[in-house]
Amino acid sequence: GTPSRTMYSPPDWVPLLPGPSILLLDDWNRASIRIIKGIMQLLQNYGMVSWSLPKGCQIVLTGNPDEQDYLVTTIDDAILTRIKHVTLKEDAKEWAVWATRNELDPRGISYVLRYPEMMIGEQRTNPRTLSEFFRVLKDYPTINETNMAEVQMHANALLDEITVANF
User: Fold this and answer.
1) Which candidate, 122, 124, 28, 23, places its Cα nearest to that of 73?
2) End-to-end CA distance of the chain
3) What residues does 60 pair with on adjacent strands?
4) Which of 33, 108, 118, 135 is the 20 to 30 A CA-CA neighbour of 8?
5) Which residues contact residue 21 at a Cβ distance below 8 angstroms, ignoring those fewer than 6 apart?
6) What's the rounded Cα separation, in Å, for the pair 33 and 29?
């Protein structure tokens, strides 16, 4: 007889219909090397052993830089030759436009515009954690002796000590 080949259906998250679509793999360089090798096959073949992405589907990967203190797998040159690599940098003015549109606390927006160097801290402060703190800050129209400890607790839970002290 002829050898049988096992066929697998694509996972539920794989687009099936042709046309414009995006397959987003978020924080892909946090995966184990075994998964990253599978992603490498997906990038090269636009599919796996027994299924393919439909025509018009684009693969978008997001990841963290490995030159900082993130728990990530270093991506080798073989993978980098298969992707368009873009490194995003923080920009206080661009962030302020986004933050205003998303109705973050104006005091926080003013802080970032006045001290753009504070957008990235030594450990936990980044645009994401600042945004979360400024969402919480909207619940405190005024900061006074009554609520200062509570605001400080939120700040300490999200931001670097230096950022909290500076704010």
Assistant:
1) 28
2) 74
3) 24
4) 33
5) 15, 54, 56, 57, 58
6) 9
Token pair for residue 75? 């991506």
Where b means 16+ CB within 10 Å and e means fewer, 37-53 reads eebbebeeeeeeeeeeb
Phi, psi angles (nearest 5°) of residue 141: -55, -35
Strands 21-25 and 57-61, by their bridges, are parallel
* 69, 97, 134, 162 alpha-carbon torsion, rounded to 10°: 40
* DSSP reduced 3-state for 59: strand
Q: Chain centroid to CA 158: how far?
A: 16
Q: In the 8-state DSSP scheme, what is residue 50?
A: S
Question: Which residue is it, tokens 């980098």?
Answer: 80
Which tokens hold the place of 153? 């607790």
What pLDDT is attached to residue 124? 85
Token pair 């679509």 in the structure block, residue: 21
Phi, psi of 59 (to 5 degrees): -100, 130
For the stretch 66-92, pLDDT in tens is 766 667 777 778 777 878 888 778 899
| Structure token digits, residue 99 | 């933050």
Residue whose structure tokens are 């962030």 = 95
